[in-house]
Design the sequence.
């Protein structure tokens, strides 16, 4: 059996994957071989099987007009992303380490789904990232930009409503301007270098708008998908998954 992980899916999670067979041969075979146990489906995925499944789920979530289905697809994506995070925690002899023996209680890991929301509009471009909750919003911003292959060379901010235009009326605003001694956009704005991720993202499901480069106006929806304990040997921060190709940060003259 290939290195991977065995997990359970409920019927609502299992059938959408099985019925949308735009998956890799390995993933499709793994789903077909699933064993039903007490109303759940026990599936064994090799680690390389996760990426095609995440891609399919992203496409399904993008195309469906049903809010319920969209939430199901995104919830399932978050679950699979969590299993992707276990990649690499396998002994050299190829035997998998039981998950229950890996858990430590030292630090919480915050797993985010970051979606590029303003360009290109027709594409689904997102990254799944993990970082310690004790790190700052500045560290989170740097990881986001790095995960999309961009240069971390401009000011940025986090806003409390991902669906509204950035404005001084936002209840929560965190700007780099505060940390570098420039005038913030409102009196209640906080900085990003001393504010911990855990102090802002206080519950799973919270979403914020991350705006980078006030000139080019890159925007990202940042949703907290999971808070879990760090696993022995896990390296943070980390990019757990990639969907879609990010456009160039600085297009060449030929592309303009």
Sequence:
């Amino acid at each position: 059996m290939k290195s991977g992980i065995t997990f359970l899916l409920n019927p609502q999670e299992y059938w959408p994957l099985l019925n949308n067979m735009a998956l890799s041969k390995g993933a499709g075979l793994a789903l077909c071989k699933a064993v039903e146990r007490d109303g759940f489906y026990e599936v064994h995925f090799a680690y390389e099987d996760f990426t095609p499944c995440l891609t399919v789920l992203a496409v399904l979530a993008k195309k469906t007009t049903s809010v319920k289905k969209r939430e199901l697809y995104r919830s399932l994506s978050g679950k699979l992303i969590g299993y992707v995070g276990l990649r690499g925690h396998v002994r050299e002899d190829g035997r998998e380490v039981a998950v229950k023996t890996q858990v430590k209680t030292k630090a919480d890991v915050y797993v985010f789904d970051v979606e590029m929301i303003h360009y290109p509009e027709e594409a689904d471009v997102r990254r799944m990232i993990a970082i310690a909750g004790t790190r700052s919003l500045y560290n989170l911003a740097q990881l986001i930009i790095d995960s999309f292959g961009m240069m971390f060379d401009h000011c940025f901010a986090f806003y409390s409503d991902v669906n509204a235009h950035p404005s001084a009326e936002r209840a929560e605003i965190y700007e780099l301007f505060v940390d570098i001694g420039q005038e913030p956009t409102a009196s209640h704005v906080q900085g990003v270098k001393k504010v911990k991720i855990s102090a802002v993202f206080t519950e799973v499901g919270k979403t914020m708008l991350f705006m980078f480069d006030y000139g080019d106006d890159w925007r990202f929806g940042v949703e907290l998908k999971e808070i879990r304990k760090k696993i022995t040997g896990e390296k943070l921060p980390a990019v757990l998954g990639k969907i879609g190709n990010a456009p160039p940060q600085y297009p060449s003259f030929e592309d303009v």
